[in-house]
Amino acid sequence: MSTAPRDRRPKAPDLEVIEPVGKRVLIRKDEDRKQTKVGIHLPDKIEIPTLTGRVVAVSAQIERDEDYPIRKYDRILFNPKQGIPVDFEGDNRLFVIPVEDVVAVFRREPQS
Hints:
Helix content: under 10%
Oligomer: single chain
């Protein structure tokens, strides 16, 4: 008979993750700018909409498809019309978008 004390620590909650399904990616939209490039601060109600974001997750289908050069953590330019907002975090900047709405992927060219 075992007399070892039981571990009474509360079990850590399971982490909730979002995995896009089909030909979709999950992105975190960049913050809208509140200042122009020349330094003019905009009023609170006026913002320059941002169409760029960072890929948080890609669906398994996209990950396997070599025709789509999109990977987790890539910075992308996207068309927001078909984006579905995800109410997962307080800032509400997560969107699931069809991969067809990814217009460009930003890449750094290696310096020679």
